[in-house]
Amino acid sequence: MTQLSELQMDALTELFNVGVSRAAASFSEIVNDRVELTVPKIEICRLAEIGEKKLSSDEKRRVGAVSQRFSGAFDANALLFFAEEHTLKILGDMLGSQVSADELAEFEQEAMCELGNIILNSCLSAMTDMLGITLNSSLPQYYIGTYPDLSKALVGRTDDSYIILMDVTLAIRKQGVEGQIVFVLSTPSLASLVSSLDRLIENI
Amino acid sequence: MTQDNSAKILLIVDDSRLSRMMIRSMVLAQHPNWIIIEAASGEEALESVDQNMPNFCTMDINMPGMLGTDATEQILLKYPNIRIAIFSANTQEYYRTHAAKLGAQFVSKPITEKSIVKALEFFELEP
Question: Which domains are delineated in chain A?
């Protein structure tokens, strides 16, 4: 596995930090409230470990997840998670108080895809601006399930390749709503991303 | 950009070494005689300000430990003449307004020639 230097790891963390900061700003505009961010954590681990090690701190908790694939200079699967009980609160903020709870539930799939699309694209576009590259995005998909179910479905494979897991929490404190963004990159994509980072570092 | 021949001290506060390197390089390209010092956290910045008395400071927000906005507030309470540019990709209205209330300049990340010019223009404003 590629061993990243301290500077490469720093650059990767900063790249993600810039991305999620932009995502938090977009999320804040959507819900019209302040969104707080944790400092992003980056870990490189085996793909098969994701479900066990990273996303299953509360295995029974049901979450809504928007998944979007990005491809180009590198390929990534970007995921936005919210606890299922929080998704309707977020949609209430997005759609306004005149929409009933039944109607909100009806819109859930479509609205969460749109929310994910805006937040994940904000994140990715800040990262591609910084690297001077272009990525194409697929249509977002929405899933509901437990963390172990979702990680298996979303990551898709359970082979031994390494992945980079970038994890950050966005929180609307007043509402008690917390979401997570996770990026999954395959080993070759990680190598491509690191090459882009190396070019950025060389050009300083 | 007007070239200033007097040596100024700039403190760069960012937990990312990459960001510190980028800011340092772009600022030195405009002001080769400036003295650049660095801090990797808000706490380090407070110590460095006491020791080095910089004229200007660039400040990240989202760092482990103290938030950059909190460090800015403490620095400006003690040294109101230091010009601080808060660099963040988190362009939420709250942070922009908060920076303005503190008397700092908000500058959007990513760090580019354009964002550095915005910070330098703020540093060079007449008092």
Answer: 6-202 (3.40.1550.10)
